[in-house]
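Dear colleague,

Following up on Tuesday's group meeting, I ran the structure prediction for the two-component complex that the binding team flagged. I've pasted the input sequences exactly as they went in, so you can double-check that nothing got truncated or mislabelled along the way. The structure tokens for the whole assembly follow below. Feel free to forward this to whoever is handling the docking comparison.

Inputs:
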Amino acid sequence: MVFAARTSVLRAARAQFAPARAAFTLNQSALARLLSTLAVLEQRDGKLQSSSLSAISAALRLGGPVTAFVAGNGVKATSAAEAAQYKGVEKVVAVESEAYEKGLPENYAPLLVENIKKGEYTHIVGGHSAFGKSLLPRVAALLDVQQISDITSIESEDTFIRPIYAGNAILTVQSTDPIKVITVRGTAFQDAEATGGNAEITEGVDPQAPAQTEWVSEELAKSERPDLATAGRVVSGGRGLKSKEEFDRIMVPLADSLGAAIGASRAAVDSGFADNSLQVGQTGKNVAPQLYLSVGISGAIQHLAGMKDSKVIAAINKDPDAPIFQVADVGLVGDLFEKVPELTEKVKSA
Amino acid sequence: MTSGLRILVPIKRVIDYAIKPRINKTQTGVETANVKHSLNPFDELSVEEAVRLRERKGPLKVDNILALSAGGPKCADTLRTAMAMGADRAFHIDVPDSNDGGLEPLTVAKMLRGVVEKENINLVLLGKQAIDGDQGQTGQMLAGLLGWPQATQASKVEIKDEAGTVEVTHEVDGGVETLRAKLPMVITTDLRLNEPRYASLPNIMKAKKKPLEKKTLADFGVEDKKRLKTLKVTEPPARQGGGKVEDVDGLISKLKELGAL
């Protein structure tokens, strides 16, 4: 019954969309020759950052020729050469200058705009990382186009899917702008191959806009563990861990035994158990690992927003009614101070 | 030239963060009627920071804090909340209510540029994103349009001297970074910036007497032109819980079965 109804609704909807789709296909084939994408890559000290992978993956999925863009200190021999290896990238535009090393949007945005105009790209794609989030809206405004943020899927050259309301709704949106400026969610675009390519590296234009901000310093949390945003396994701790000492005592060995990255809920971060950069959720990082193991996390919607695309979710919590159990593939009700060390031991000896 | 801080704090009325939004039947947006709305949490932080800049009595005095919101008539309540927290005056930009997240960020940024120029603003404090559209663009777009420096996702803001040097510590992937710039400037706020205050009853009463001016987009030379077309809004694919296990061994064998270990 339910099935039948659903099919008929689908059919009706399809019939309704059919004419529009036919028109679109035509449109697309006409545009296919003109479509050309610039993937904006993030680099630090000559190394491409993980957000670059998603920018390239998404750019390749758009279908047209892909040019990669990278700027910074002596990048041609380092990050540009690395980008040239990506399969499917046709060209790398590189701008070597100390001025762009820190990726400050005040001079990086005019730099990009000049190169976009020169290359006549129709699509500009960057990762939805701190770098992309800060830079690309500024670029979009300078180009007078409305950016599409944090997309998780590409429907066609002008239609994209993105989560809104902390992932509680999925928006399909069509852009009417001549240039599409897009940031992409890293966890949704990971399939670019970092080898097998042989792109030509060319010199970009450098408008040398003045830097209005001065980079003073940075403090990065040092970690030997896999990067949270791209790790295959993530173990995440919440308020249930009670203190920073307990967080470290319980979560670190667990992460080590699984070769996992450590994440945290907002409650854990706000209580000082873990560093801000480890926060998973609407206002923190989005992760989609093979395994997400949540420990002492109730599962507020803001937290679920950041992890519900994980392949397998496991939860350990003492409250059997915690909302996390509604999304967990496997749940264990119990005291985390007993269960987690037991789990750590058993995983280690397995 | 900088004698004091003239701060603009744009705020947005959104569905309360604790409410799980429901998609409407026509799949054009989420249900907004009879749903609790509040001040966007990140905007609360920017109002709070503006008020604290005044209270800190730094090298630059705060001359004025202007709160602004664009939307339907109920935005006025949100603006009263901001004034009860300490904003001096408010602009309500009258825009019809809609269920697709309201004005696009580029439109808002253009409108704010108009306000900045007319009201001689030298510091704009915005939230890093609104929790309905989750776009995170308006501040950066505004800074780009004005040609001003920007600092996004600020966790600490310090006015260093009378010349208007500002140091902002902001959150980046993997840690924090500190930037220095000169006013005028655009700053967007992150959760760690401060702990917003509750408006006290006397302040709520006082806020009713503070000036709230009604304006239109046209006053700032902007029209509501949509660049993005909402084709549909749907529910995310539901995740089904896989049930519970009795003990750690059960957990391990289930994870192996699912291929996660």
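Chain A has two domains: 31-203, 233-349.

Cheers,
M.
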